[in-house]
Amino acid sequence: MKFNGRYQRALVQIKRLCYSGLDDRQLRNEIIGLLHPITKSDLCCFQTVDPATGLITSNVREGIHDHAVSDSEHVFFEHLYFEDYLPAYRRLLHSGFPVNRLSDETSGNPGKAYRHRMLYAPIGLDDEIRAVMHAGKNMWGTMVMAREKTASHYSEQDAWLLAKLAPHIGAGFRTAMQQRMAATEPEAAPQNMDIPGLLIYNPGGYIESYTAAAVHWLRELGELHPDWCRKELPVYITQVVSALKRSQSMLSDHDFEIVPELARHGRNGRCITIKAYEMSADEDKDRKIGIILGPAVHRDLIQFQTAAYGLTPQEKAIVHLVAKGNNSAEISAKLSISTHTVQEHLSNIFDKVGVRSRREVVKKIFLANLFEGAKSL
């Protein structure tokens, strides 16, 4: 599609921003500022996601800021994200065109959509456009924009602009994560606080108790609202709780793919995992949810590291075998590929990770951000 002058300028400016070394929050704020004069959106939610699970790790919101939006966000995380948005994002990721418009889905009548009635109509919004920010085959972020009913629907140019930008923004998010990993120093980890923390989530929608270690990790992940236990739960807590509920409901095939855990990088760059599980109780209705927060271990980080470097499934398999000490002939036999193909894959892995040897690959992928033993290789 041929863009007009404003769209073309925004495309060039945003593409440059994606490779300017900004952290993901700065990048999102800058992009929203450049898109707003063109898209004229009344609400924009721009998220980073865990590439392993698709769960939202942080959200930048611009536009409507009031109590009604907070209520809509509860509906979004509690019901719509796993029922509608996450399956749609996965389809878009593999469709070849990572953007869709609500007006297209509903033949020009957004009010026919369930998410319109649940999410947008109550706050006076109408049409929506959403996009997946990807790098390779991994989803690194999502964007949702909506307009008031009095505005025109999003145009084909709007959709094509976001589609053109999606891989560059995804690459920008991935680079931001790599920079955080590279900047992390082992000495930055608090030596006396490696124990996991525990939150107890009440089915009524609030945290009823917590450990001191949990508060430590929450603060490492960002500022805490004074009423964070009840009215201002961090978005990643809401995400894992909703993921657990949805994974247990098994209402659709997509529910089998939902994992109630995610990983985020803290302020000092360290990777922190958040995991939810159902606690035992005499009656189902009394069951509370336990949420564990703590430093990531090897198995938690591997998916992040391989996604960050854009490794293919075959390259990931080879990296795992290399880490176990297999030589090229053994890898060849186990994967049923030639030794020449193994060497080609290793060469590609070295280029992507930025190393020159198998030893360096193992160190960078398996030990990056792990403070215990990180200097032993």
Automatic annotation (TrEMBL):
Keywords: DNA-binding, Transcription, Transcription regulation. Transmembrane segments: none annotated. The keyword Transcription regulation applies. It comes from the Bacteria. InterPro entries: Sig_transdc_resp-reg_C-effctor, Tscrpt_reg_LuxR_C, WH-like_DNA-bd_sf. It holds the Pfam family GerE. Residues 304-369 form the HTH luxR-type domain. This is HTH luxR-type domain-containing protein. The lineage of its organism: Bacteria, Bacillati, Bacillota, Bacilli, Bacillales.
